[in-house]
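Model it.
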Amino acid sequence: MPTSLNSDDRMRLMKFVCSFAWADLEIKEPERAYVKRLMRRLSLTPDERKEVEGWLEVPPRAEEVDPSDIPKAHRKLFVDAVRGMIMADGQVKEDERENLGLLEQLLR
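Modeled.
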């Protein structure tokens, strides 16, 4: 995970990841574990971790997750992190696949 992400970009990434975790309206343990690994890899501060853990209880608001806010330099990283999330539970559902495809299209 690149250390070039600033705090805003790290949190933006985590919002996207958490929003995809909520695609099926529940957070499974493998998804929770993925988020925790990602938080460690991103070296989130305790306050940032607390905010992300809150998104595992209540999803980020839709208006907070805007693909146009993703910096061009980090788009592949965001897509890869989201792909990791949808694969975390070992089941990729059709709606998850479609949402990932839509994200990829929006970021082209």
